[in-house]
Specification:
alpha/beta, Rossmann fold, Dihydrodipicolinate Reductase, domain 2, 6-stranded parallel sheet, 34% helix
Length: 326
Amino acid sequence: MEPVKLGIIGCGIAARKLHFPALQKLKDKFEVVMVCNHTEPKAKSFAEMLGNVPYVLDYHELLTNSKVEAVLIILPIHLNYKVTLDALKAGKNVLLEKPIASNLEEARKMLLFKKLYPQVKMVAENFRFRETFYRVQEIIKNDIIGEPYAAVWNIFYQITSDSQYAQTEWRINHQYPGGFVTDGGVHNIAALRMLFGDFIQTNAFSKSINPTIGKTDTFSMQFKTEQNVHGVLNLFFSPVGYEQNEFHIFGEKGSIFIDSNDIIIKTSKEEETRESIDDDGGYINQLDDFYRAIRENTENHSPFEESFRDFEIIVKALTIDEGNNY
């Protein structure tokens, strides 16, 4: 089958560091035919990275290019709704970086696109495609740790004012609730829902410790899922002198501990199995899913509906102090 002719709108950090490496490994499935950024230096340098493809500074010009059959939209979150709508009106298939929108009102409108436009509409929620979580699903399905009953996910990572992400104006002066908590947290919500079903109850608190990186940087949420798993998700982006990204799953017969791409299974204090997973973050699998949805007419595994739910859960948890039933 012919590679998908892809246009990329947005040539910043995510385009270069996350999507570019995956696209390089999928040259048989994607041909980047044009890129766009509103500032020329970024557009030009990214176009050069991709082999001197054409670049434009106005995304409307990219959307009128008949060679472009699909677009990867990697823009500030508050632009997602408008640019996605314009791309669909232009007849393009869309792969949109998460979160789906800047507020729930726009996100709900995007759910209507399913009936209005026949093209593939997919959100780039790479955690849904990570090999690490595929393997955890398999471990649970095979009853190795018994029925899961609890999960705790701690992410403690200090974002300082000199971080590359803290140099981005739209992230610091964010026009969407939660700032870094939402931008990063939808990943964790997606993975938790993938493993344990939808959330049916949450209770959370949030605060700002370092206002120079946004309005919210500290978030702790208790939750219960439809599979009766209780848990805690901690997202702290201002801890001084300490970092951690650890995910613990507790079952009736054992426990799973996930540290980066390593999975440790313990069925007693003495018995431990360790697996190292070849996991690029899910970017290759994600693009492959987008390709198959276009070329083979398969259902994509990260539709707008799923990403809306990820976003809705964290936004409601941020805005409601008391227990929230869904």
